[in-house]
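Hi team,

Filling in the usual template for the complex we talked about on Friday. All components are listed, including any nucleic acid strands or ligand strings, so the model treats them as one assembly.

SUBMITTER: L.P.
PURPOSE: interface mapping
COMPONENTS: two
RESIDUES: 221
SEQUENCES:
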Amino acid sequence: MAQKMAMALFSGSVDKLTAAGVILSGAAADDMDVDIYVLLMGARAFKKENINEQGTLAELPHLKDEFLASLERLNVNTWIEFFKQAKEMTNVKIHICGLAGKIWGGEKLEDFNELADDICGIGEYITSAQEADVHLFI
Amino acid sequence: MEANELKTVAVDKTVDARGTACPGPLLAAKKEIANIASGEVMEVLSADEATKRDIPKWAQKKGHDYMGVLEEDGYFRIYLKKG
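RESULT (copied from the run log):
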């Protein structure tokens, strides 16, 4: 039986989204089942109209340009590409927090990009975290 | 396996992941090992230092046989036998 990872993805900044994508890739290589709960700031990055937005927000804004240039030089996937690739390789479900969606004007699943699987409440996240072998907050 | 033995191993599939950084080589290995049969040998070419540690650990967990690594000029050849 596959091991389970639960990830709370609070951040909507490109550096942390990229970190989440790298970790997700490792989980995919390991055939883990992954449930990602997109909270508050994270939900903005998953809004449909932001699909092509790479790097508006960064944890360290003064390093953002250097960071993005290095990713390109090293031929590293964008965070969206990491997420898409992981979904193709293993069982990854992306749940958008209902409150987070509303904060950014997203009431329904169709308001978010194709990575999103459903809109959920916090109880589901807590249950998933309780049952997971690995639990991360990013 | 020793380096001189690895140099003579018959390779069934070569995965060239030299153009990518971690986690690219690991993902490439994961994808491509699905395309060979049990007992066949795959070599992964990587210029990423971390791959030398990453792939053996991954292979062990997934039931593949890590055969060893050869260091070339600026990259590595990592050998696996599919379990």
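MY TAKE: The beta strands of chain B are 13-16, 41-46, 65-71, 76-81. The mean pLDDT of chain B is 96.

Thanks, L.
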